[in-house]
Amino acid sequence: MNRTTEVSVPRRRFLANVTGALAAVPLTIAAAHAAGEDTTSRSAPLPRPGQFPVRVISSANGLDATRTAYEAILKGGDTLDACVAGVNLVEDDPNDTSVGYGGLPNEDGIVELDAAVMHGPTHQAGAVAALQNIKNPSKVAKLVMEQTDHVLLVGEGALKFARAHGFKEEDLLTERARKIWLYWRQSRDKDDDWIEPPDELLDPEVKTFFKRPTGTIHCAGMNTNGDISCTTTTSGLAFKLAGRVGDSPIIGAGLYVDNAVGSSGSTGRGEANLQNLSCSTAVELMRGGRSPKEAGLEILRRIAANSVNRLRDKDGRPNFDLSFYLLAKNGDYAGVSMWGPAKFAITDEKGTRHEPCAVLFERVAK
Ligand code: GLY
After folding, report:
1. Whole-angstrom Cα distance, residue 91 to residue 248?
2. Which of 227, 235, 295, 308 maximizes the CB count within 10 A of its CB?
């Protein structure tokens, strides 16, 4: 079916057939008009298989991840294998305190990791949550997808599964992360039995982590056939309650891909994405004709509107950060962020680089 014939389908019949149609091809501009949707950002018809633009996008901490994944896709690798290989670099990096080895621990000083993968061509997904002692939770999540009938394993069950598959157990708490956690614990409450050390005994770096960070990496990639996959992996909110699970391992919240439409993944305050099922909603907005940027900004606006008062600043704006990385089937992409300035990483035919995120609110330099 070409795009011109789709235009002529009467609205009632089009809507009745919409599920089947979407499984085959994304909505065209004309078909979306017929369905009464916002099409302001809809771009040209899709390329043929073999001619889609190869793209890999990621959170800002994934510059090398996007390069690695892009090269793997160019060599003909599966898009999910490529994205997982990319984020493994960051999971292995002791200097990234938001992901894998070296991630900041929970309030008890124990590193608990969350990760999920989603494979566009098969619409399969796998995830692990609150996983201890395994530095590549994204690899375990992929095995959950490939070698179980389940989607999500948590805690001890996830660890048992990883052990069964031969993953090596190791202490994920680096000295740097331990020192940051210890200072957080010591300086938390003036009335408890921990005493804050004098400044001269402190590594100056630990104080920069006093505002609890929510790092994470999301990575999404598309190949020349327009197949899209993605993964999100994190150590979650620093100093979280033991057992707290964020959005990253929850399909639809921390990541989502519909191979006919595009993908969305997130970093930042996971609770906001759990409450708004943000990533699948963003993909649905793209299906309805929004560009990646408009879809992402719309989700941020909804989250800002839904935020409770204790999470707002004096001007009523969310006092937390949240970003989305969106990739549309036609190759359009965007990073969007609640607070700017912010950037995201991309590798495509133009090279590997950071680009600025579109933002809802700008921080004013003091
Ligand atoms: N978005 C990561 C987390 O909240 O755990």
Report:
1. 14
2. 235
Ligand 1 pocket, residue 323 CB under 6 Å? no
Structure tokens at 179: 């020192």
Which tokens go with 150?
């389940």
- Please tell me the distance from the alpha carbon of residue 344 to that of residue 331, in angstroms, as a whole number: 16
Classify residue 237 by its DSSP letter: S
With tokens 């969310």, the residue in question is 318
- Alpha carbon of 14 to ligand 1 centroid (Å): 39
Phi, psi (5° rounding) for residue 257?
Answer: -140, 135
| pLDDT tens per residue across span 278-334 | 999 999 999 999 999 999 999 999 999 999 999 999 999 999 999 999 999 999 999
Q: What angle do CA 265, 354, 269 make, to 5 degrees?
A: 35
> Which pTM does this prediction carry?
0.87
- Give the per-residue SS3 of 18-84: HHHHHHHCCCCHHHHHHCCCCCCCCCCCCCCCCCCCCEEEEEHHHHHHHHHHHHHHHCCCCHHHHHH
User: Quick one: 64 exposed, middle or buried, by C-beta within 10 A (0-12, 13-18, 19+)?
Assistant: middle
Half-sphere exposure of 171 (CA within 13 A, CB side): 6
Q: Which residues pair with 354 in a beta bridge?
A: 345
Q: How many residues does the chain have?
A: 366
Contact 115, 128 (CB under 8 A): yes
Domains of the chain, earliest start first: 38-173+213-362 (3.60.20.30)
Instruction: Answer yes or no: are the C-beta atoms of 125 and 261 closer than 8 Å.
Output: no
Tell me, in angstroms, the distance from the centre of ligand 1 to residue 354's CA.
22
Q: Which residues fall within 8 angstroms of residue 155, CB to CB, at 6 or more apart?
A: 129, 130, 131, 132, 243
CA dist 33 and 277 (Å) reads 26
Q: Identify the residue whose tokens are 């999470």.
A: 311
Ligand 1 atom nearest the C-alpha of 245 is 5
With 0-12 / 13-18 / 19 or more C-beta atoms within 10 angstroms meaning exposed / middle / buried, residue 112 is: buried
Told to judge if 347 belongs to the known catalytic residues of this protein, a careful annotator would answer no
Question: Atom 4 of ligand 1 has which residue's CA nearest to it?
Answer: 270
Does ligand 1 lie within 6 Å of residue 216's CB atom? yes
